[in-house]
Design goal:
The structure holds 2 protein chains of 2 kinds. Chain A is an alpha+beta fold. Chain A has helices at about 25-30, 65-75, 170-180, 225-245, 275-285, 310-315, 320-325, 330-345, 355-360, 385-400, 415-420, 435-445; strands at about 45-50, 55-60, 80-90, 95-115, 120-130, 140-145, 150-155, 190-195, 195-205, 210-215, 265-270, 300, 350, 370-375, 405-410, 425-430. In chain A, helix 2 packs antiparallel against helix 3 and helix 8 packs parallel to helix 11 (about 415-420). Chain B contains 27 helices and 22 strands. Chain B is elongated. The chains are: A alpha+beta, B alpha+beta. Chain A: Pfam families: eRF1_2, eRF1_3, Pelota_N.
């Protein structure tokens, strides 16, 4: 039996940059239903944002996805206050040294962010700006943000405009994070499979996390060999074990009675792999009663392949749509599909790429009556203030001046990834823009 | 070696024969005389002109069965040795005089065959005079040399002889016969045969020139008779050239070749290396180009005669300084053409060289373990093997829309060709009926998976093989369902040509056309398949309506033509897979009488052999990793894309970069010591953990590993709109996710010149250059044909740049 299991977690998502935003106004009118279930959200403890855009906000993250929001909110240059544990070494007069772990409240000026989407841990490093008994100003420290612990974020606008403060994007992002409208939706677990390959993903409101990839070589069918069936069964077994572990699903007998909610589980594959997996789970349930709780929440859908970019197809399938109703993810996917359709029609009413979109905006093509600016939140994570300003101003202009729609897609969703392929920005136009203009624009770009 | 033994035996026997032999047969003696004369002349004429006593000569002649050439060579060689060594021992007997003194007793052969006997004859011809005057030294030593030298020559000669034999069957036959005679027969026989035609001819001429032709023509005639060719009178020089060769004694062809070799290799024997050049002519003579040879031969300068006959005769003779293999050796060589001898000095002659290389190649093939390490050699080995063993082979993939009847059609084909036995078929039928799918029985031959059978759908490719009289076919049965197009791509990558199966049912054909019929056809075309056979299946369900067939033919052919198939590479066969009509046998349905073209199998057989990159570095995409059994815990299967490999080779698997050893190889289900590009093989590996092997990985050699890349540029034909997007990249079994990161330019279809740089989007049917990025490093190298898919449909196919 030849088998290869790669239990390594696959880390995805970008690790650089900070700051992201969503547009609550935009969302609020799109979101019509709310689930009755209450989901924990980031708690806004204190909000002191001035009119000029500077100010502080105190937040308490309560669930892992909040870390992702924090990751998008915090940008280099911001001031961050949070509790920290620091090892302090003191030297006595005698020359002997002693070290102790001290609990401190530190304020740092953010230099760098490190976000691990799989474990939802956010590490923020920077220089300490407040003097304490144990630290000096200018020393470096890395804050590890923790769940259920407050942190305070301050964004400044300098006299020379060296900071961006709480711009519109940041504000919306904040509203999104604290979930003002209570629109956060249930998560789902998706298992995208093909023979010998399974991707277990957690689909959240703002991000899709690839939790684990199961890879195993399943012998192909051969003459006179039952190897294939054996291999497939083993593959199912490994996949199920992995899935249960990732879901933290308790399969002990005693757990059969508890009624904790089970997330929807989407099984997707080309051909019959997903259906076979469902059958396998059913067969397993007869020997492991706890699994029966899982069965009702399983949905089998079709996907073109076993790779994660088939997720968009999964999310668009009718059965999943009814299940997940109106998640951000589903809307984003729909939006991208519409855009690509428009692009395919070659009506010149769709364009993508930074320069092209800016040119279109300049011509007033992204305005009232159907103009939609689609932008990835990845662009707002730029370390460069000017760059961020460029995009924020573009968004503001489209929304406030031109009257068009702006949609900010999460780069941690599949649709966001598709958008990033297009340069991170695209637009649906109200009227066709001649190709020639774009060409000249390209030439300009080339000249650069 | 055996000949020596034989010879000795012969000597013993000769004891009594001697008297009767020498004296009683005047013809023979006469002939001997002639030979002696010839030898003397040649000795003199030869570069290092040498003299020898009559006895010596005659002795030599006897030993060489009157082969003048060899005798001369022998003598010359001996002389030279002596001159160098100045050994008196041998010389004692005859300093210069040709005195009838008997050779030293030591050498028995000599004693038995005393030179004296021959000497007596000499007066007859009046030849002795010349000899006496010219002969310088002793013959004794030579004998030993003769005996010793012969084997050497033999070994070498034998190879060449073998070659010669192959080419000239006639000659070979003659030689063989000669060989048979000489060793076994006592001298008496020799006497008949001994006069070699070649020598004769030369002798004759010389005689004529010297006005010595006092000999009775009878002897010559007799000799010739023995030769097997009607000996024309001496005057007829023309034909003799050929006739002399056939001589039994010398097995002319072989000796000649041997002589050539011997020249080079044995410097001791021949002082004059210059003479060697001519031999090439000789080789050519063997081949049958007589006139050309004669003209070319420089060696003939030495010989007096200009005539073709003479030339021919002389070739074997002294002027060329051939060291002679003993006749026995020659014979042996002729008989066992391929023995482990080294061809030695044929260098100067191109022809000989070739022959040698052929021989050595042949030797390689024979050896148990081929040394296939050098690529160029591989080619030769393969070519040889193909010549000797293999039928022409062809792999074809069966494609078409789901439920077109691909598997059933192929099951029928296999059943009809006897690749599957009736009992198994019956078993399938019963089982299929049991689950209510009786019509799938034939498909079960290929659909072996339990799920495939339960659902009645082919999921993965199945390979099977069968042979017709002319061709060994490997079938790759591909799934038609759109979800399994990746598997179909894997199958198509193993195929030389394709069979497109079409359901002629009303409505089915049309839906297939919209479905996978087109996609499959486009895919196989873009993967390099040139020839396509369209099997219009299920014709029985439409009553073999010609109109239907014509309609389908018209639509499909127009589509295939636009897809890039040449019209002459497209053929249509109406058939019925379930009934077997027009598959292997012609349909007997009266309604199908309008079709008179070839059946499917006949159409398949028209496929031409395909060439593969045998001399390229090894490349093989792993199709499957499995456990081959208790003895072969790790096996991989696939088709060799390029190069060759053999048991014991160290291979490298990419992208894991792990090495493994090949424990054994199966080619098309049979164990083999080697495999070459184009073959479907199973490799049983050792020294590797299966975790490093995945289907889609590439096997190569550490010396020329395939690079793993994460981004590449490709020129593709778009089937659907292309833009920066997420795609799946397929190459055979390789299936990885990636994205188009950049549209570099759309290109002109014909010229490939860029039409528009950095297009926003590339429409269907456009050729474009794109950049593709992948998340993981993948073993790919240009030029590789790739297929790009997205969302379950094929969006583009093209060539890596």
């Amino acid at each position: 039996m030849t088998e290869a299991v790669n239990p390594d977690n696959i880390v995805r998502g970008t690790q650089d940059a900070t700051g992201s935003a969503a547009t609550p106004a935009f969302f609020s009118h799109l979101i019509k239903k709310t689930r009755s279930v209450i989901y924990p959200t980031m708690r806004l403890v204190k909000n002191k944002i001035e009119h000029n855009g500077s100010g502080t906000v105190t937040l308490m993250p309560e669930e892992p996805e909040d870390m992702w929001h924090a990751y998008n909110l915090i940008r280099p240059g911001d001031l961050l206050r949070a509790s920290a544990i620091r090892r302090i070494t003191t030297t006595q007069d005698t020359g002997s040294t002693s070290s102790a772990r001290v609990h401190l409240n530190l304020v740092i000026r953010v230099k760098n962010l490190d976000f691990d989407p799989q474990s939802s841990q956010l590490h923020v490093s920077g220089q300490i700006v407040n003097e304490t008994a144990h630290t000096k100003v200018g020393q470096f420290h890395t804050l590890d943000l923790e769940l259920n612990r407050n942190f305070t974020l301050e964004k400044e606008i300098g006299a020379q405009g060296e900071g961006v403060g709480w711009d519109s994007i940041a504000v919306e992002m904040l509203k999104d994070a604290v979930d003002e409208g209570g629109k956060r939706k249930a998560e789902a677990v998706a298992v995208i499979m093909q023979e010998g390959l399974a991707h277990i993903c957690f689909i959240g409101q703002f991000q899709t996390i690839l939790k684990q990839k199961v890879e195993m070589s399943v012998p192909r069918k051969r003459h006179g060999g039952g190897e294939h069936d054996k291999g497939i069964n083993k593959f199912y077994k490994v996949t199920l074990d992995t899935l249960l572990r990732q879901m933290e699903f308790n399969t002990s007998i005693t757990s059969g009675s508890n009624n904790e909610a089970v997330k929807p589980v989407l099984l997707a594959s080309p051909g019959f792999v997903a259906a076979g997996f469902q059958k396998y789970i059913q067969a397993e349930a007869s020997s492991t009663p706890a699994l029966k709780r899982l069965l009702p929440s399983i949905v089998v859908v079709h996907s073109a392949s076993g790779y994660t970019h088939s997720l968009s197809e999964v999310l668009q399938s009718p059965s999943v749509k009814t299940l997940l109703a109106d998640t951000k993810y589903a809307r984003e996917t729909k939006l991208m599909d519409d855009f690509l359709d428009q692009l395919r029609k070659e009506t010149n009413k769709a364009t993508y790429g930074p320069r092209e979109v800016e040119a279109a905006v300049d011509q007033g093509a992204v305005g009232r009556g159907g103009g939609v600016l689609i932008i990835s939140n990845h662009l707002f994570r730029s370390q460069d203030v000017a760059t961020r300003k460029r995009w924020v101003s573009l968004v503001d202009r489209v929304r406030d001046v031109e009257g068009g729609e702006v949609r900010i897609l999460s780069s941690d969703h599949e649709s966001g990834k598709r958008l990033e392929g297009l340069g991170g920005i695209a637009a649906l136009l109200t009227f066709p823009i001649a190709d020639e203009d774009l060409e000249s624009d390209e030439e300009a770009a080339d000249a650069d | 070696m055996s000949k020596h033994r034989v010879k000795n035996v012969g000597y013993d026997d000769e004891d009594y024969d001697d008297d009767g032999y020498d004296s009683p047969d005047p013809e023979e003696q006469e002939f001997l005389q002639q030979c002696t004369t010839a030898v003397v002349e040649q000795l003199r004429a030869g570069q290092p002109s040498v003299t020898a006593s009559k006895e010596e000569i005659q002795d030599a002649l006897w030993h060489y069965y009157n082969d003048v050439e060899k005798s001369v060579n022998y003598l010359r060689g001996k002389r030279e040795k002596e001159m160098k060594k100045q050994q008196t021992t041998a010389t004692t007997q005859k300093p210069k005089g040709q005195v009838p003194a008997y050779p030293a007793i030591d050498t028995r052969p000599m004693a038995h065959f005393s030179a004296a006997d021959f000497f007596r004859d000499c007066p007859w011809l009046n030849v002795p005079l010349h000899r006496k005057s010219e002969i310088l030294v002793e013959p004794l030593y030579p004998r030993l040399g003769l005996l010793g030298g012969a084997p050497e020559a033999a070994g070498k000669v034998s190879k060449l002889a073998a070659l010669a034999a192959k080419r000239n069957k006639q000659k070979e036959g003659d030689k063989a016969s000669a060989g048979g005679e000489t060793p076994s027969t006592p001298q008496s026989e020799v006497s008949d045969a001994p006069p070699e035609p070649s020598k004769l001819s030369s002798l004759r001429e010389r005689l004529a020139a010297t006005s010595k032709p006092s000999k009775p023509s009878e002897g010559l005639a007799g000799l010739r008779r023995t030769e097997g060719k009607p000996a024309t009178p001496e005057s007829s020089i023309i034909k003799t050239p050929m006739s002399p060769e056939p001589d039994p004694d010398k097995a002319e062809a072989p000796p000649v070749v041997g002589a050539e070799d011997s020249k080079d290799r044995a410097p001791s024997e021949q002082a004059a290396s210059d003479m060697r050049a001519p031999p090439s002519m000789f080789a050519s003579a063997i081949l049958g180009d007589f006139p050309g040879q004669t003209a070319a031969e420089p060696s003939h300068l030495h010989s007096n005669s200009v005539d073709l006959l003479q030339i021919y005769g002389q070739k074997p003779a002294e002027p060329y300084d051939f060291t002679d293999p003993s006749p026995d050796d020659v014979v042996l060589n002729a008989q066992n053409t391929a023995k482990g001898f080294k061809s030695q000095g044929a260098g100067p002659r191109a022809g000989a060289k070739k022959a040698q290389s052929d021989v050595t190649n042949g030797m390689n093939n024979l050896s148990v373990e081929e040394k296939v390490t050098v690529k160029s050699k591989n080619l030769d080995v393969l070519a040889e093997y193909n010549k000797s063993k293999r039928k022409k082979s062809a792999n074809f993939v069966v494609i078409g829309h789901v439920d077109a009847g691909k598997s059933t059609l192929m099951g029928r084909l296999l059943a009809d060709q006897g690749a599957i036995d009736q009992r198994t078929l019956e078993k399938y039928r019963k089982e299929a009926e049991k689950i209510g799918k009786g019509s799938f029985a034939l498909a079960w031959v290929l659909d072996q998976g339990s799920e495939e059978r339960a659902r009645g759908v082919t999921i993965d490719i199945a390979t099977n093989k069968f042979e017709t009289n002319t061709t060994a076919f490997t079938i790759v049965d591909a799934p038609g369902h759109r979800d399994f197009v990746p598997n179909m791509i894997a199958g198509a990558s193993q195929a030389d040509f394709a069979v497109l199966v079409i359901d002629s049912n009303t409505g089915k054909f049309e839906s297939g056309l919209r479905g996978q019929t087109k996609e499959h056809a486009l895919l196989v075309r873009s993967m390099g398949v040139q020839k396509i056979v369209v099997a219009v299946n299920k014709m029985d369900t439409v009553q073999w309506a010609k109109e239907r067939f014509d309609e389908i033919q018209q639509q499909i052919s127009s589509f295939l033509t636009t897809a890039g198939f040449l019209a002459r590479n497209i053929s249509f066969v109406p058939c019925s897979g379930v009934l077997g009509d027009n598959i292997s046998r012609r349909s007997e349905d009266p309604q199908s009488s309008w079709y008179t073209g070839p059946t499917l199998i006949e159409e398949l057989e028209t496929s031409e052999p395909y060439t593969h990159a045998l001399d390229k570095p090894l490349r093989m995409t792993i199709g499957d990793v499995f456990r081959g059994g208790v003895q072969n815990p790790i096996s991989i299967s696939g088709r060799l894309d390029a190069g060759s490999l053999q048991v014991g080779d160290q291979i490298l698997t990419m992208p894991s970069g792990e090495s493994a050893a090949i424990r054994s190889i199966e080619v098309d289900g049979d164990t083999s010591d080697w495999a070459v590009a184009g073959q479907n093989v199973v490799l049983n590996l050792a020294n590797i953990d299966p975790i490093h092997l995945r289907s889609g990985d590439v096997i190569c050699r550490a010396s020329s590993p395939i690079a793993t890349i994460t981004t590449f540029t490709a020129k593709v034909l778009a089937f659907e709109h292309l833009m920066p997007m997420l795609i799946d990249i397929h190459r055979g079994r390789l299936h990885v996710p990636g994205r188009i990161s950049k549209l570099v330019a759309s290109l002109d279809k014909a010229s490939g010149a860029p039409i528009k740089k950095r297009p926003k989007i590339v429409g269907p049917g456009t050729v474009a250059r794109i950049v593709v990025e992948m998340d993981q490093a993948v073993p790919l190298e240009a030029p590789t044909r790739i297929v790009l898919r997205s969302g379950g449909s094929t969006v583009a196919a093209g060539l890596l740049e």
